[in-house]
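seq as requested:
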Amino acid sequence: MATVITSRSESVFHYLNPIAMVRHLWQHRDLIQQFTKREIEGRYKGSFLGLFWSFINPLILLLIYTFVFGVVMKSRWSISQESSLSEFALILFCGLIAFNIFSECAGKASNIITSVPNYVKKVVFPLEILPVSTLGSALFHGAISLGILLVAKLIITGTLQLTLLLLPIIMLPLLFLCLGLMWFLASMGVFIRDIGYTVALVLQVLFFLTPIFYPIESIPQPFNAIIRLNPMASIADNFRRSIIWGTSPSWYGWLAWTALTGSIMILGYAWFMKTKKAFADVI
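struct tokens:
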């Protein structure tokens, strides 16, 4: 059951309080769970294979990218070219999992509010939970892809890394970044309808500016420094460290990006909460 939201306008400083934000979202945890489940089930609703597409899609993408970059272009992750095609496929897929979670969240963000006008106009509803549910759905599909990756790694290398246990901590910058951008873009999408096209274009650019198909060390200066300004570069690298190579992440970089993306999350939440009162006047 949804908690009734009062019409009292809170101070912006209240929304900038991370503890208040967590407490508020926790009050709606049951509703978040329901909408996350609905988001997952509705993705392939009516299709013959249903959730099985969640397994097929990442496998097909992996095969295509591996063929294009590994077979046709003969790319290898190691600069010495000693790495095998199977190792290259695992490294590539690992980076794709991280980026696809981000891409799914950012790609849907601008339409999150405009796609549910009834919740805005006719129902007292905590709209701020919708981006959280979208993130939950993206994480579900990411977990399926991760399971496929781990099975493939176990078959190819015969081992799994203990550093996998660090993955929930390593993912914090990704979660913070996704939530912050979704709250901001969901709000902006109400007032600026063209923002969805801009986001789609930016995601295409970021896809190739994120070291998914190539190691960041292979990029010459000054472009190397520019690529490192992309938060997904550090996130994808730490994914590979914990899942593929069994090494600890760069904790200094992780801490810096966690602090920065955490700030983005808080600011995005505050922006959404202060602007959502105007949604009904626009939609």
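The chain has 14 helices and no strands.
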